Fold this sequence. Notes:
Helix content: 40-55%
Mean pLDDT: 76
Number of helices: 2
Order of helices and strands: HH
Amino acid sequence: xxxxxxxxxxxxxxxxxxxxxxxxxxxxxxxxxxxxxxxxxxxxxxxxxxxxxxxxxxxxxxxxxxxxxxxxxxxxxxxxxxxxxxxxxxxxxxxxxxxxxxxxxx
Length: 106
């Protein structure tokens, strides 16, 4: 059976998406004449409180029931970590200075 892999929840994207949908919904309701300008006094703050609540719930349940080890790719274990100062394999018998057969530097 194939398992479904999902990406981790990005709470900030969720909150801003809820705010965007709320503003678009308020615009649509106002255009249709369902709400008037006076309703903006309580619909705007209600939208922000709802988006904040959804963000808190999303943040609290972000890693619930998720095992960190399942996110790791077992095939990636042989990949070396990033080394900001890589060491290059050189032949230890090779000199860094160029010398001729008499030992003089060129």
